[in-house]
Description:
By secondary structure, the chain is of the alpha/beta class. Helix content is 28%, strand content 21%.
Amino acid sequence: MSSKTTKYITQIEQLEQLSESERQTLAKVTDVFAFRVNEYYLSLINWDDPNDPIRRIIVPNARELDEWGRLDPSDEKTYTVMPGVEHKYNSTVLLMVSNVCDGICRYCFRKRVFIDRQREYVRDLPAALDYIKQHSEITNALLTGGDPLILATSKLENIIRRLREIDHIRIIRIGTKVPAFNPGRIVEDPALAKMIEEYSTADKKIYVMTHFVHPRELTDLAVEAVHTLQRAGAITANQTPLIRGVNDNPEVLADLLAKLSFIGAAPYYIFQCRPALGNKPYTVPIEEGYEIIEKAKSLVSGLAKRAHFVMSHSTGKIEVIGKARDAIYFRYHRAAADADSGRLLVFKSNPGACWLDDYEEMIREYPVEQPYRSYGPE
């Protein structure tokens, strides 16, 4: 199946594999939250299994309408300096360069992008670049969205070329699920590989942050897509949320981590599913998730167990680092405020907690006397 002729389905009524009653029920969901999938990804689903994990990733669930969560669970608005530009961590700027994805994950934490498409992306690239030029502490530019690889290669190259003209931008990251959703887009576009080869240099790399969440997404074509990016000079790393019914089984998660290490898409982060509106059916409580992840890690080699289990809280990336009978231990892996960097938090166990804010009783806090500084100019 060629990516150039790939057909997209954006109306649940078009999904012929569902019964008429299922389509009617799920239409109520898609009236609220956008739906989008392509033929390639649909072909990965075993339609005889109502609990098929690939189906769960992309096909709506009636429980998405449960009252739970909010549209901006990580308070990205707080750190938005202009439309589509976020500067939360000193050394990293986030550019939302697209308001479209090749498919829409049902557990997406940026559902607001597909509700207000004209607002939630970079509309003034020169202004965004000027902002970056004025902040020499920024060494990393993260391209996200939506999905940057939904853009034509020429448009993506224009963004990357102009970022490369800024001396203090050392790393350009592309956050994408295209290698899972539509790997043919990568394999069949030699211009993309050529562009990466030109701008991923010896001391200024392009990182492609893949988004594989289940081993069955790692098809031969998907693996070829990852290898194409690597041959072109990109560094690949994978980040996955822990999703109920998809990868919340230790053996399945271990299989995913191992296969990612085999293909060189290093496990980077395992995210706690963010409490976004509609995400209740996909969320695993933190302490249960910690146990699942630790069991999975016990089944794989060191190269496969490097991922940090984190939640992208409004105050920073908070790592879950330990669990005792009555306590749960967190540490700021990356903090919005320098004073929080490395800070250790210990809370009384709450097995039902799905986010840091669900913990009410702090046992102890260990502030860091000498806050860490981000790498970059003084």
